[in-house]
């Protein structure tokens, strides 16, 4: 099968995801958020968090471990401090509603922090920073995740890959979006390698006995190493504390464990937003941000480097290309989508 046969327009994939989710019992508005989130990841070249996650989300809805119609509650504890209970809903829906609440409160108080519990995998963290940037907010987004990283010096997974995302708006330009896992690599890349029967680079993972491995399946049964050694471990620990311990969500090995009587992931998130004119005027903020970014890009380049990119810039360029070209769906995933199409009676079309 040629790659051309696997390319689908963004609009057709969006419609497919939304229609399938509606058939699975998800409200249309919530389905749109999920589709937006998954496709943003693919448009940014982060296929591990894109449409490839859709079959697993559906599986969780089907087996009852994700609530398709949650009663998401937002509790105002302090003027600028909210607690959100996601009622075990789809993570992207829960997080998007938490972000909206944070921005609305920050409009009055300059900033807002929202702690989220009883959520699920929420996709690409930078998606929420992009949301905030479009409304003139700086944002910091944390989430914990399934245990995958050992504490530094350990040989048992305890912490998740626990990403950190930070977004800085720019005036009439794409925002700066920093989005990184605290592991040396996103777990989704190892999942993809395992599905395709590929090996992984040395230094990514340990097997279940704590020995280095290049076998993707052994890595999934074992653990992923933190980025930057003990520094990555410390950041993963901080994110788990802020997302799980602080918010009342699960933490450590209890996140998405599905062990014993546990039937919920209970993923936690922490979302912080700050108005761009919280400390200085909006005009000053945007002028200073432009100067900052321009100076970075104008730094003398190392040998062989044609351009210095801001965080998120290459992803945003790719997004514009793929919106026109379409998204290529790997063969294995396409087979899964065809099965979903048949099961839910929703056609999978290209245009």
Overall description:
This protein is of the alpha+beta class and 351 residues long. It has one domain (3-183, 226-282, 313-344): 2-Layer Sandwich (Ribosomal Protein S8, Chain: A, domain 1). Helix content is 40%, strand content 17%. It is built from eleven helices and twelve strands. It has helices spanning 10-23, 28-43, 54-62, 91-109, 126-133, 187-195, 216-221, 230-245, 282-297, 313-325, 331-344, and strands at 7-8, 73-78, 81-85, 111-119, 137-143, 164-170, 173-180, 205-206, 212-213, 223-224, 267-275, 327-328. The strands form three sheets. A seven-stranded mixed sheet has the order 2-3-4-11-5-6-7, sandwiched between helices. The chain has a three-stranded antiparallel sheet with strand order 9-8-10. Strands 1-12 form a two-stranded antiparallel ribbon. β6 (164-170) and β7 (173-180) form a beta hairpin. α1 (10-23) runs antiparallel to α2 (28-43). It is globular, with a radius of gyration of 20 Å.
């Amino acid at each position: 099968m040629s790659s051309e046969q696997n390319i689908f327009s963004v609009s057709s994939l969006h419609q497919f995801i939304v229609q399938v989710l509606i058939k699975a019992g998800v409200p249309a508005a919530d389905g749109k958020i999920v589709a937006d989130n998954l496709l943003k990841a693919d448009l940014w070249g982060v296929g591990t968090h894109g449409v490839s996650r859709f079959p697993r989300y559906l599986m969780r809805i089907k087996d009852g471990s994700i609530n398709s119609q949650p009663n998401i509650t937002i509790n105002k504890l302090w003027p600028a401090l909210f607690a959100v209970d996601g009622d075990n809903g789809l993570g992207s829906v829960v997080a998007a509603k938490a972000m909206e609440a944070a921005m609305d409160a920050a409009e009055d108080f300059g900033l807002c922090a929202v702690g989220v519990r009883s959520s699920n995998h929420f996709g690409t963290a930078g998606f929420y920073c992009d949301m905030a940037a479009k409304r003139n907010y700086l944002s910091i987004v944390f989430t914990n995740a399934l245990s995958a990283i050992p504490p530094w010096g350990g040989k048992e997974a305890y912490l998740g890959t626990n990403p950190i995302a930070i977004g800085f708006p720019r005036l009439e330009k794409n925002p700066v979006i920093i989005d990184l896992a605290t592991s040396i690599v996103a777990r989704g890349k190892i999942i993809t390698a395992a599905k395709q029967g590929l090996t992984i680079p040395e230094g990514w993972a340990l097997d279940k006995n704590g020995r280095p491995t290049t076998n993707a399946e052994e890595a999934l049964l074992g653990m992923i190493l933190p980025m930057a050694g003990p520094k990555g471990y410390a950041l993963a620990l901080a994110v788990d504390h802020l997302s799980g311990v602080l918010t009342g969500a699960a933490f450590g090995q209890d996140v998405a464990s599905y062990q014993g009587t546990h039937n919920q992931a209970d993923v936690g998130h922490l979302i912080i937003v700050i108005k761009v004119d919280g400390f200085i005027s909006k005009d000053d903020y945007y002028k200073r941000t432009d100067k900052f970014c321009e100076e970075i890009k104008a730094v003398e380049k190392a040998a062989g480097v044609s351009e210095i990119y801001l965080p998120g810039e290459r992803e945003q360029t790719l997004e514009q290309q793929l919106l026109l070209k379409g998204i290529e769906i790997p063969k294995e995933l396409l087979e899964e989508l065809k099965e979903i199409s048949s099961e839910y009676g929703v056609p999978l079309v290209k245009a």
